[in-house]
Amino acid sequence: MSMNTVGRPTRPEAPNDSEAGFTSLSGGRGLLQDEPLIFELGGWTKTGVDLPDAVAADGALAGLTRDEPIGLPGLSEPEAVRHYVRLSQKNHAIDLALYPLGSCTMKHNPRLNEKMARLPGLSDIHPLQPQSTVQGAIELMDRLAHWLKTLTGMPAVALSPKAGAHGELCGLLAIRAAHEAAGNGHRKTVLAPTSAHGTNPATAAFCGYTVVEIAQTDDGRVDLADLEAKLGDHVAAIMVTNPNTCGLFERDVVEIARLTHAAGAYFYCDGANFNAIVGRVRPGDLGVDAMHINLHKTFSTPHGGGGPGAGPVVLSEALAPFAPTPWVVHDENGYKLVEEAEGVAAQAFGRMSAFHGQMGMYVRAYAYMLSHGADGLKQVAEDAVLNANYIKARLSDLMSPAFPEGPCMHEALFDDAWLEGTGVTTLDFAKAMIDEGFHPMTMYFPLVVHGAMLIEPTETESKAELDRFVDALRLLAESAKAGAVERFKNAPHLAPLKRLDETLAARKPKLKWKPVAPAPLAAE
Amino acid sequence: MRFTKDHEWVAVEGDVATVGITAYAAEQLGDVVFVEVPEVGKTVAQGDGLAVVESVKAASDVYAPVSGEVVEANAELGDAPETVNALPESGGWFAKLKLSNPAEVDALMDRDAYEAFLATL
Hints:
CATH topology of one domain in chain A: Aspartate Aminotransferase, domain 2
CATH architecture of one domain in chain A: 3-Layer(aba) Sandwich
Strand content of chain A: 5-15%
CATH class of one domain in chain A: Alpha Beta
Shape of chain B: globular
Mean pLDDT of chain A: 91
CATH class of chain B: Mainly Beta
CATH superfamily of chain B: RNA polymerase II/Efflux pump adaptor protein, barrel-sandwich hybrid domain
Helix content of chain A: 25-40%
Order of helices and strands of chain B: EEEHEEEEEHHEHH
Oligomer: heterodimer
Number of helices of chain A: 15
Shape of chain A: globular
Radius of gyration of chain A: 27 Å
Helix content of chain B: 10-25%
Number of strands of chain A: 13
Strand order of the largest sheet of chain B: 1-2-3-9-8-5
Radius of gyration of chain B: 13 Å
Number of strands of chain B: 9
Distance between the termini of chain A: 71 Å
Largest sheet of chain A: 7 strands, mixed
Number of domains of chain B: 1
Mean pLDDT of chain B: 94
Structural class of chain A: alpha/beta
CATH architecture of chain B: Beta Barrel
């Protein structure tokens, strides 16, 4: 029998169960290359595009003509493509795995949304086109507005804010305008609970308000007595998140609204966690005056580096007259964006953006609404809550839930009491999750819980994926309790970059890459 | 040395009070990365914002524990904020105030009272 004796070996020479201590010669790792900055990759002397020579400026720049190289990197198309794909391989994305950042609602971005957003009639249009040529797009905005108003039980919506915090700004500007119109401009205080998102006090301060904290009860909710004591003729609004950042429903929300209104103040609800109650609870029924809705959370549009946010704000009857332009009206002649603050819009406080907001996100959110329907959206909230409670239930014997009593809403919150004496911190534990292939949860937020670990699985994860996640966390937790501190102290060990020295980065930041020695322009 | 419930300390020499934050506060803040000290000549009332201290974890106001006029500020903290962690109750001082109401000092806690207060936190 003739045999090929020069074939390549098909088995490892020796058992290969450890990469400890092994480093490559070039800094590459497996098939992942070490990636320099784009400025280090491409010099200004080369370019990947062939542009015609520039027309002489003829002195039109009045002596401001550049005579130094601009220093932009020149790369060929494959070099540029590879640079960004390599960077993306070193990063995490919702398309790679579960992304359990609490309060961020990193849910799957359905491909149907993307398909709809790419329809030429919706993607190849421009805000300055005559409105008669984009009637379908404006109608879509009107229908989206209808869904948002219906789901929240509120009479008006401002679509244009471009993110959650931008929505907060819109809501507080409407509140300020309403107070000023009623001669209540002296109200200069905004109340917010200690567990609030940092954007709440930041927004209030930006609007010229002084922020006063409302205490929290031991079971993680607004302290009604403290709220009542702090309300008064000086208070313009309260800002409360519901469900709150501890993942708990504010059971007394109706009473909170009643007390607030009795004091002549408005109730701003931070709607970042609307995904936990959509289809089940209408904030309008709770007495809310204004609430932003993160389309990029509740309604599945991309975010976290994947796409712009969108934060429409629903408004109560009292605030509706002050809504910013533009908004959509329609009659027998079709759809129209009201742009000018006159007539019915005379009290509009202004506008939040140059045009009408994030059209691409409107399409995606509307596609999500239509594909789920009202019953499907209700199930979104139910499954989000069910998944979070599953995680809480499966980890509560090893880790310490911050609020063990009763179920949570859409996120499971643990404190670091269970790590006491192990030498492992919340930060160490979170970084070790990276070695296990999972993005860390939100950590050290909310501030009211010591060493907080806030896990939000969202409704889009299957039980199998939740089990994989929980199993990994259980192994880590057991390892921490067994004293394997080394596994945690310098984690991540297997990531492209190791633990950062955040203190050094803050004390001695390098904010700008500087070229080694730029060469002068070659004489022609 | 006298202390406040907001974890500032005051050391008085003559009519000038040196102000800083306590070792407990420095420990709680974590690594301090930025300090903003007041301008000399600024007048503050007790409880006013006097300085800002920023750590990796949080940015916090430092309140004036007593009323007075800023006569000196610790400019070295600008380049070396880590001094607040290393020497919170000596070299990491923030500012010196010329007292306008020395009686305020007596009303602050002494070391024993402050330690007892910390034990309740």
